[in-house]
Amino acid sequence: MHDEKEVQFTSAGTNINEVKQKNAETGLSYNDVKALLAKTGGHGTAIYSDTDFEEVRQEIHKNQQ
Fold it and tell me: Which of 5, 19, 45, 57 is geometrically suited to a Cys-Cys bond with 38, CB 3.0 to 4.6 A?
């Protein structure tokens, strides 16, 4: 097993740990952006939404009675 602190390079000579560190410092990941858009109503993001449709349905019917 490799130690996390051990320097690892790709065949092209890229320092893998350095790239991972820089990526962690850059901000939102692709999946973070998808989740944020789903929560804020981004176009075409309904499949990523965490809305509980049954809860919404019950809330609507409760208000109609």
Answer: 45
